[in-house]
Write a structure and sequence with these properties.
With 736 residues, the protein is α+β, with helices and mostly antiparallel strands. The chain has 6 domains: 6-123, no CATH class; 128-234, PAS domain (Beta-Lactamase, 2-Layer Sandwich); 253-348, 2-Layer Sandwich (Beta-Lactamase), CATH 3.30.450.20; 359-427, Orthogonal Bundle (Helix Hairpins), CATH 1.10.287.130; 432-585, Histidine kinase-like ATPase, C-terminal domain (Heat Shock Protein 90), CATH 3.30.565.10; 610-735, Rossmann fold (3-Layer(aba) Sandwich). 48% of the residues lie in helices and 21% in strands. The protein contains 22 helices and 22 strands. The strands form 5 sheets. Strands 2-1-5-4-3 form a 5-stranded antiparallel beta sheet, with helices on both faces. Strands 7-6-10-9-8 form a 5-stranded antiparallel beta sheet, sandwiched between helices. A 5-stranded mixed beta sheet has the order 12-14-15-17-16. A hairpin with a 6-residue loop joins strand 3 (188-195) and strand 4 (202-213). Helix 1 (6-31) runs parallel beside helix 3 (53-71), helix 2 (40-51) packs antiparallel against helix 3 (53-71) and helix 2 packs parallel to helix 4 (84-127). The longest helix is centred in the N-terminal third of the chain and has 44 residues, at 84-127. The relative contact order is 0.04. Bound molecules: adenosine-5'-diphosphate. Adenosine-5'-diphosphate binds at residues 491-492, 495, 519, 521-524, 532, 537-540, 546, 548-554, 578.
Length: 736
């Protein structure tokens, strides 16, 4: 009812004054001039309250004039009044009237203030999409502030009308929470979903309720505020989803992301490395946790000139090498343009860097291999050329023979190199297939040892072989396993100085057959041991004309692994010898397995007799040995009697081809000596001599020779003879 418009306020004052004065015109005659002030007091209060202090005081002034002029005796006197009685009445009227106007105007002001505050509050509530409400717990009655409609789409008079609006999934939880708060008489807050009554739209609301209790502590009233926080919730959900995507990207790229403040302190980090927790890093200065000068310098550059940088840092932390690819840039500046915030991300490229290093090493090894290969392939070319040159017209048979043997030997060497190369290419293509069958590993070892004997003899190595008395069954490819052992034995011979000792052992350990090949040769440094099985690795070149390509052990390892086995190397170091150990799974059920018939074993591994040729004509001896080897025999040659006896002890040959005219002792003496030695009775002794008469034959027979051939020996005849001897010689050896 308060009047705000100025002209209305003054009009009201005028009307009020006129009404009071008119009232006096009627009332004074009735009251006989008493209490002329009376009608003015109500209008003063009314005007002060409705129109304010100004109009109220105006009415007061006008009333005082009117009273003095018409109603206070003596009436009709000119202004100003002079009589003390009149002056007193007027003064009292002005005082009391002023008081009435003041009090009523002040009430008006208070009411105006309250209204403004209320309006402001309502404005604030609706601007914040909030509704304030009051709930009488005992009756269930509810009242709302203005703006409640904007939040809920309606208001309601009883609390029960609220629940149908709530989202079904939230009702139970919220009711339980409110009941609990009422019981305990405490404040409550909840976040829930509700449908707007008007549009049916689903909104998120946050409610705070303050529970008021009576003297007994019972909840009587709840005053509260409910805010529509849908926008906030949606923004939160969107930011959570964005964060989730961001983290996923960081996780899958193994990216560490971080932020530093102006003091170079980490304020945030995600995906910490090296087992560190964010708490270990946040709050610390750059370089405090993981010291790395390079990293620090790069970051300082960003702080100094604000330009983004990209760099790789390499270092070690807790004994782990690391390689990180980092991107850093300024993310905040102060008013002067100084960098206050820096963000960065680093990707762990350790695996990549290691793979690159590995690739580099492999490429270097390949280069070295190609150089070796070229060298090794060129080596045989010179002797072959000489040999070809030797084969002019009219050459002596011995020279032709030597040339042939040289060509044959070098061709065989090249063939071995090429075999190695082929195996290598099969290995890199994973194209080796095993022809597996059940076999006695002892046979494989014996064959490989036999094949190596000549090489060992040539270098005067002692060869010790220790095999168990019972068969050791494995499911394997005989040819490939022989290749494995042959390779290990060749290496042992190659990397041991002449006169060394090579030991081959076969044992059973649990479910494995264990073959070890040990030598007392040049050994392998500990650091190189892991590498020897890599392709193209040659850790030590010796002056012994190894003639290898660094392929052998790589092939060996692959073959062993194809058999489901493992290979290892042990050496106490350089010059301390080496031991290669091959472990192969024993054939399943081998213990109970019926041993295969002997014939089968023999046919699988026909033992070609080892033939020792003794002739002081070196070329003749060597070429014959070569020839026999090409016929499948294990043949080696020596050139004097003493060497013959030594080689006999080491090689234990099955057949000895002995020239009778030797430089140090006669062939007859050698034969007699051999017959006396252990194992000498079983060996087949064949004399090769220029003398073929009866008495010569008798002499050789008497010295213990089994056969007597006259020079020049026809190679085909000799091989045929050796083949006929073979079973007998074998039988004799086996019997012994
Ligand atoms: P290579 O053709 O050079 O013999 P391998 O693959 O057979 O190639 O052997 C790789 C390297 O391992 C050799 O160059 C040699 O340095 C080392 N090695 C192999 N066997 C032995 C051994 N018994 N004693 C010492 N070093 C060996």
């Amino acid at each position: 009812m308060i009047i705000e418009t100025p002209w209305k306020r003054w009009l009201l004052a005028l009307l009020a004054y006129a009404t009071a004065s008119a009232l006096n015109v009627f009332l004074q005659p009735l009251l006989e001039g008493r209490a002329p002030l009376l009608p003015y007091f109500p209008v003063l209060v009314l005007t002060g309250y409705l129109a304010g202090a100004g109009p109220g005081l105006a009415v007061l002034g006008a009333a005082a004039l009117t009273l003095s002029a018409f109603w206070i005796a003596p009436a009709g006197e000119p202004w100003p009044p002079t009589r003390p009685a009149e002056l007193l009445i007027l003064g009292l009227f002005l005082l009391a009237g002023g008081l009435a106007v003041g009090v009523s105007a002040w009430s008006r002001w208070l009411l105006q203030q309250a209204q403004t505050t209320h309006e402001r509050l309502n404005m604030a509530l609706s601007a914040g999409r909030m509704a304030a409400w009051d709930w009488d717990v005992r009756t269930g009655a509810m009242s709302f502030s203005g703006g409640a409609e904007a939040v809920f789409g309606k208001t309601w008079a009883h609390v029960d009308e609220a629940w149908p609006l709530a989202h079904p999934e939230d009702v139970q939880r919220v009711r339980a929470l409110v009941d609990d708060a009422l019981r305990q008489g405490r404040h409550y807050t909840f976040l829930g979903r509700m449908h707007r009554a008007d549009t049916g739209e689903l909104r998120w609301v946050e409610t705070h309720g303050h529970v008021h209790c009576d003297a007994l502590g019972r909840a009587v009233r709840v005053s509260g505020v409910t805010a529509d926080v849908t926008d906030r919730q949606l923004a939160l959900q969107a930011s959570q989803a964005a964060e989730e995507r961001f983290h996923l990207a960081l996780d899958s790229g193994k990216v560490t992301a971080w932020e530093c403040d102006a003091e170079r302190r980490y304020t945030w980090i995600y995906n910490t490395r090296f087992g560190l927790q964010p708490a270990d890093v946040v709050g610390r200065r750059i370089g405090e946790t993981i010291p790395n000068e390079e990293h620090k310098r790069a970051l300082e550059r960003v702080y100094a000139d604000g330009e983004p940088v990209q760099f790789q840092v390499d270092g070690r932390f807790r004994d782990q090498p690391y390689h990180l690819l980092c991107s850093v840039r300024a993310a905040g500046r102060d008013a002067e343009g100084r960098v206050t915030r820096v963000i960065g991300a680093s990707v762990d490229v350790t695996a990549l860097a290691e793979a690159q290093a590995q690739l580099r090493r492999e490429s270097q090894r390949k280069d070295a291999f190609l150089a070796t290969l070229a060298h090794e392939l060129r080596n045989p070319m010179a002797p072959i050329r000489y040999a070809v040159a030797m084969l002019g017209e009219d050459v002596a048979p011995a020279v032709r023979e030597q040339a042939r043997s040289i060509i044959g030997r070098q061709a065989a060497h090249m063939a071995r190199l090429l075999d190695d190369l082929l195996d290598m290419s099969r290995i890199t293509r994973n194209a080796i297939e095993l022809q597996r069958e059940r076999l006695d590993l002892r046979g494989v070892i014996e064959q490989a040892v036999d094949n190596t004997r000549p090489a060992c003899a040539a270098l005067r190595h002692r060869l010790v072989v220790s095999l168990p008395p019972q068969p050791v069954w494995v499911d394997g490819d005989a040819t490939r396993l022989q290749q494995v052992l042959g390779n290990l034995l060749d290496n042992a011979a190659k990397y041991t100085r002449p006169g060394g000792e090579i030991t081959v052992r076969l044992d059973e350990e649990g479910a494995e057959a264990v073959v070890s090949v040990s030598d007392n040769g040049i050994g392998i440094a500990a650091a190189d041991q892991a590498q020897v099985f890599e392709l193209f690795t040659q850790v030590q070149r010796t002056g012994q004309g190894s003639g290898g390509l660094g392929i052998g052990l790589a092939v060996v390892r692959q073959l062993v692994e194809l058999h489901g086995g493992r290979i290892g190397v042990f050496s106490e170091g350089v010059e301390r010898g080496s031991r290669f150990t091959v472990r192969l799974p024993l054939a399943a059920g081998a213990a109970e397995a019926q041993p295969l018939p002997d014939a089968k074993v023999v046919s699988l591994f026909p033992r070609m007799p080892t033939v020792l040729i003794v002739d002081d004509n070196q070329d003749a001896a060597d070429s014959l040995a070569m020839l026999l080897r090409s016929g499948g025999f294990a043949a080696s040659a020596v050139h004097d009697g003493a060497a013959a006896l030594r080689a006999f002890d080491q090689l234990q040959p099955r057949v000895l081809l002995l020239d009778l005219g030797l430089p140090d002792m006669s062939g007859l003496e050698v034969a007699r000596e051999i017959r006396r030695r252990p194992g000498g009775a079983a060996v087949t002794l064949i004399a090769i001599t220029g003398w073929g008469q009866e008495k010569d034959r008798a002499q050789t027979a008497q010295a213990g020779f089994d056969e007597h051939l006259v020079k020049p020996v026809d190679p085909a005849q000799l091989q045929a003879l050796l083949r006929t001897l073979q079973p007998a010689a074998l039988g004799a050896a086996d019997a012994g």
